[in-house]
Amino acid sequence: MTDDQRGPRPPVVGMVGAGQLARMTCQAAIGLGIGFRVLAGTPDDSAALVCADTMTGDYTALPDLLAFARGCDVLTFDHEHVPGEHLAALERAAADKAGAGQSGPAVRPGGAALRYTQDKLAMRERLRAFGVPCPRHAPVTDLAAVSACAADWGWPIVLKAVTGGYDGRGVWVCGTPEEAAGVLAHPVVVFAEENVAFDAELAALVARSPHGQGAAYPVVQTVQRGGVCHEVLAPAPGLAAGRAREAQQMALELAAELDVTGLLAVELFAGPAGLLVNELAMRPHNSGHWTIEGARTSQFEQHLRAVLDLPLGDPWMAAPQAAMANVFGAASPDIFGRYEHVMAADPGVKVHLYGKQVRPGRKIGHVTVLGSDMAGLRSRARRAAAYLATGEEGE
Amino acid sequence: MTDDQRGPRPPVVGMVGAGQLARMTCQAAIGLGIGFRVLAGTPDDSAALVCADTMTGDYTALPDLLAFARGCDVLTFDHEHVPGEHLAALERAAADKAGAGQSGPAVRPGGAALRYTQDKLAMRERLRAFGVPCPRHAPVTDLAAVSACAADWGWPIVLKAVTGGYDGRGVWVCGTPEEAAGVLAHPVVVFAEENVAFDAELAALVARSPHGQGAAYPVVQTVQRGGVCHEVLAPAPGLAAGRAREAQQMALELAAELDVTGLLAVELFAGPAGLLVNELAMRPHNSGHWTIEGARTSQFEQHLRAVLDLPLGDPWMAAPQAAMANVFGAASPDIFGRYEHVMAADPGVKVHLYGKQVRPGRKIGHVTVLGSDMAGLRSRARRAAAYLATGEEGE
Question: Where are the domains of chain B?
Answer without folding.
Answer: 3-107, 136-194, 200-390
